[in-house]
Amino acid sequence: MQQAISLANMAINKKNWSAARYALSRARVLADALPANVAVAERERLATARKRFAARNTPAAKKVRQAKATAAKRAGGKKPAPKKSTAKKAATQPKPAPVRDLGDRFINRAALGYGPTNETR
């Protein structure tokens, strides 16, 4: 029973919910098989593990997670980088791509199926 409860706690810590559910069900079966006055401490541990498992998707658990995340962000001490002004970017025009000089090239339109052309080489 102790082993099943410890496996459930490890699975809950790792957020492996299917393994936690299985371990909790095994521990519950073992606890129900024993008399009520035996293994009182284990039953209490099982009850706390069940509460932790049940709180995984509740709004209260989500609020705690969000509070921890914002506290961790504040504790970092990093200041945001100063934003660059966008007015400067709008004022400067991007440079056009350089035009390559291809020289005097002749495309044979008749060979491409467009009919005869007036240009000759």
Secondary-structure topology with pairs:
Blueprint: H1 2-13, H2 17-33, H3 40-54, H4 59-75, H5 86-91
Helix pairs in contact: 1-2, 1-3, 2-3
Short key terms for the protein model shown above:
0% strand; 5 helices; elongated
Note down, in words, how this protein is organized.
The model has no long low-confidence stretch (mean pLDDT 78). By secondary structure, the protein is mainly alpha-helical. It has helices spanning 2-13, 17-33, 40-54, 59-75, 86-91. 55% of the residues lie in helices and 0% in strands. The longest helix has 17 residues, at 17-33.
At a glance:
The chain is mostly helical and 121 residues long.
Distance between the termini: 96 Å
Q: Based on Cα principal axes, name the global outline.
A: elongated
Helix count, per DSSP? 5
Biggest sheet: strands, sense, closure? none
Mean pLDDT: 78
Secondary-structure element string: HHHHH
Strand percentage, roughly?
Answer: under 5%
- What's the gyration radius in Å? 36 Å
Spans where pLDDT lies below 50 across 5 or more residues: none
According to DSSP, the number of beta strands is 0
How much helix is in the residues? Answer: 55-70%
The assigned structural class equals: mainly alpha
